[in-house]
Amino acid sequence: MRELRGNEEPVFLIRNAYKPQGYDARFIQSPDRGAITAELLNDIETLETGKLFYVSTDGLATSESLARLIQQKYSDKRILVINSKTSGDEDEQEFMQKPDTVLDRYDIIICSPSVATGVSIEAQGIIQRVYGIFLGVSSTDADIAQSLGRVREPVQRVVWCAKSGSNYSKVSRSLNPLELKGHLQALSSTTVSLIRSSLREDLTGQFQSYDWQADPHVNLYCKLAADQNFAMRYLREAVLVRLRFEGHQVTVEDWQADNATKLLLHQAKQELRQIDAEAIIGAEDLTYAEVMVLEQKEGLEPDQRLAVAKHYLKDFYCLETLTVEDVLRDNEGRWRGELLNLESQLFPSLVG
């Protein structure tokens, strides 16, 4: 900390010795999330009057697919979904600010990493059970433990986690901070070599004389990135170890895959893609000036977000009229990214 601050003044740390009461956890080991999803769908039938299930996930798609499956099977259930799409909406903001006061409005609350920290649910006797379904697309073992701890009451947790995650550092997948630093240096050197002609001579000289070993910021970044890579490679094991280390009573259960529920999840995802595409098609057509005005706002309404997305799709593909097939082919911008990468390879002079 002293090195990062850049002076020799004393560093004072505040130690939090509080240790929350441990909870019982069923840790399901299964090839995919189908088994725990089926367990959740069946468990909802046992939901007591005046209580709710709290479901923590680590991704937008997972939260949406779960909500759709639950709504299809239990159309009478009141569901609140908080993810990157909805976290700015009125109901979701109210929950984020004062969660205990709105719990009685819902039967199931599904949260993505938008609620991993900063929200504390203190109410007692309302949440019947907490479910955790984690694919490893964003959260580390520490993040997962945090998200499971948003509910303070030590009610039972039912957890499934992918064996390995996918959110590795973009620099390197190395688990060693020193090796990762070497990869970072090599990547930076290659980048400078490619753009050397557009750099001032003094900037090139500064890079060549840069001390990669002495910079505390680089050292800290490499350590954090290596820790993240370790968590991704051994995610299920890391989560299990962390939960036990925190004092929770964890029982491991080995389950077979539930292919029927896995298929339902896939179908739900495809249905949601179709619904989202149709919503974009039906959005208002905006001018460039109107889009610029909206993008200056701190938060957009759902219909405004759809209109902005529609504008950029039409603009990129040079289309007068947008179809559902165009939106689905774009695949949330992935196709645009691939086309831009191809353009940079075939016509580097046009990129800029």
Could you write a compact summary of the structure shown?
The protein is α/β, with parallel strands linked by helices and 352 residues long. It has helices at residues 2-5, 34-43, 60-73, 90-97, 141-148, 177-195, 201-208, 216-233, 235-245, 259-281, 288-295, 302-317, 324-330, 334-346, and strands spanning 24-29, 52-57, 79-82, 108-111, 127-134, 157-161, 249-254. It has a seven-stranded parallel sheet, sandwiched between helices.
List key phrases describing it:
352 residues; Rossmann fold; 3 domains
Walkthrough of the structure:
The chain is α/β, with parallel strands linked by helices and 352 residues long. The chain has three domains: 169 residues, Rossmann fold; 52 residues; 69 residues, no CATH class. 47% of the residues lie in helices and 11% in strands. The chain is built from 14 helices and seven strands. Strands 3-4-2-5-6-1-7 form a seven-stranded parallel sheet, with helices on both faces. The mean pLDDT is 91.
